[in-house]
Amino acid sequence: MASNSDKAGKGSRKRMSSPEIDGPLKRIKSEDGENGETKYNPYLAHMGEYKDKKDGYSNGSRHPEGSPLHGFARRQTTAEQAFVAEDGDNNPFTGEPHSQQYFAILKSRRNLPVHKQRQEFLDLYHKTQILVFVGETGSGKTTQIPQYVLYDELPHLNKKLVACTQPRRVAAMSVAQRVADELDVNLGEEVGYSIRFEDKTGPRTILKYMTDGMLLREAMHDHEMSRYSCIILDEAHERTLATDILMALLKQVAKRRPDLKIIVMSATLDAQKFQRYFYDAPLLAVPGRTHPVEIFYTPEPEKDYVEAAIRTVLQIHAVEDEGDILLFLTGEEEIEDTCRKISLEVDEMIRETDCGPMKVYPLYGTLPPHQQQKIFEPAPPPSRKGGRPGRKCIISTNIAETSLTIDGIVYVVDPGFSKQKIYNPRIRVESLLVSAISRASAQQRAGRAGRTKPGKCFRLYTEDAFKNELIPQTYPEILRSNLSNTVLELKKLGVQDLVHFDLMDPPAPETMMRALEELNYLACLDDEGELTDLGSLASEFPLDPTLAVMLIHSPEFLCSNEILSITSLLSVPQVFVRPANKRREADEMKNHFRHADGDHLTLLNVYHAFKGVVNQGGDPKKWCHEHYLSYRHLSSADNVRMQLKRIMETYEIDLVSTDFHDKNYYTNIRRALVTGFFMQVAKKENNKVYRTMKDNNQAVMLHPSTVLQTDYDWVVYNEFVLTTKQYVRTVTGIRPEWLLELAPTYYDIDSWEGQPDVKQALKAVAEKKRRRDAMKAGR
DNA sequence: GAGCACTGC
């Protein structure tokens, strides 16, 4: 142990005492970066052996007398033991004395509902491999359960981690910070988080919060998830694509790894479904801590939900007690519109009655962060002394249902609609549709009224509709998505038999077939459905297969630097900003970057200009503002670009450019686009209408935002947009002979079915090319 | 000549 005390004070954390604390081997390892010594200490060699002994670290002897964890046997601990250790002077995981703040937080932790059931939790945890845990909002499950697991798993002993997944990055980051505080450790040391672009964990990390997508990525290279001794899937009821795949995967891994424990945490609804899915796993339910919310329904269905919503909000403002209002609507335009209308109406009310002031705020995902922050401003004070209190009204998309929590909401107005993604496998198109929400969603919305005190929820539909028309749960994402990316991931994850892969809600066979077909055309899967080398490489990129394949092919066209930039820009939200009152100015600015051959090349021009400003030490923020570009999204594209570039370097994909003055500079890029987008091609039918290829076969128009000027008969497009009309967005002109040359399987004329005019046109192109080649040869 | 629910790698 002497070597440990020698080190005291040298590490990043000041070690005050307790050299006898367990884990010297670990500590030395983590600190040897300081002076480059003691990678291996022969006196401590025996401590590395416990791993090989079957039950070697469960006998308690690993924690010497005096250690807070003395007597703890892995997976045999009691809540009482943990309480004593938590109450101790020194932190069992770091050896440091506990801070004052620690004891203050500990007190509040013990008031959480979940605290009472710690022993019950441990009893179940000990006797089962998979556990379903159900806890309502406010139960403390997300912060406490992983800590209960830590005190029982003792992950510092077997060098395995406890992981807890979250659907969203912000949640992973903020919960990790909270738990680090609760455990009295520095974030990034014993407790860390891992999200895209940021890995805040270290050699000492024993508890890691991470996004579900991140764990899935890791699993692609470690099918056994061997770094973890316990995996906790939190918010499983949200049923993200990543969570669904992880659940199916973990079911398989659990069979191969009896030592791996799995906890699936969910909100109450549908708990039995999770239980059944996990072989009737035991279930532990913990009550939440929220205030009651009184629900009101309309007696008759409302014809116009926006109008009804406005009426309801004004009514609340006129007659209800103090408290803020949250109204759920479906999209940006609807929200901005309603904000204006309500503000005007309130102004009138103030003039005519003695009602208090009301601030109205919009809230949706694409709103810049500083404007999103405004919703947290306090409600306005009464307009005169002794007047009626003011309130704020937030008009929000679904973002306020799960992602953002606003305290102080007492009234919720729920018209019962949201925009939802749907996938039509027949024409391979994802689109957004305003649809009725589910009962689970309605309950979640109502719950937002009871966070700080008892609240009221006004549902703008009948009770009968709630009971009989709303579906119980929102369809999971996996049933509403194009699965090309997912299928490629599954193949990479080593799932051989997709048909029998045990997903909780298997997608439609047609959706699977479409994905397999698409991946086959992209040559990511061979004709037997096996992953090809190209497919394996493509799956390394956090991109849609189309983009990944294009990027991998791009060096052949001497433009991988440029395709890398374009790919990054296509992976972030629209970089062009178009404020409602300055559309003309914004469009004029956009024209500065216009490339006559299409939008992809225009994006590239924007990126080059942006980088030019950055590299010349200009003020990119100011420049973006002046040019109606989103600094946020351009920076994020730059971030994505760096990540993709690193992956390209790892797999030795050359980063090359054609000389800018070469006449083929842009042609090479357009040809490279075809290697990925050859299935997203539209051919001009008449002046306005284009038609997409093969069984997609849709009449589309070029989106009005396009800069494409030259009259191209053939275009590639990035996106199919279904709104009032069918549009293709982000389009670039191409030459049809490139299709025959670069995607010969897809554009095989002999096997071409349907679309006789397209077939005819392709035939003519092929014939022309043949003649030209013959002439060249004859010369 | 128009609109973009929300996440995630």
UniProtKB/TrEMBL annotation:
User: What GO terms are given for molecular function?
Assistant: ATP binding; hydrolase activity; RNA binding; RNA helicase activity
Name any GO cellular component annotation: post-mRNA release spliceosomal complex
Which cell locations does it reside in? Nucleus
- Alphabetically list the UniProt keywords: ATP-binding, Helicase, Hydrolase, mRNA processing, mRNA splicing, Nucleotide-binding, Nucleus
Identify the SMART domains for this entry. DEXDc (SM00487), HA2 (SM00847), HELICc (SM00490)
- EC number per UniProt: 3.6.4.13
Spell out the reaction equation it catalyses: ATP + H2O = ADP + phosphate + H(+)
Give the main location: nucleus
Residues of the region (Disordered) are 1-70
Domain Helicase ATP-binding: from-to ranges: 122-287
- Cell division as a keyword of this entry, yes or no, is no
Q: Which family does it belong to?
A: Belongs to the DEAD box helicase family. DEAH subfamily. DDX15/PRP43 sub-subfamily.
- Name of the protein described by the UniProt record: RNA helicase
The organism encoding this protein is Monosporascus ibericus
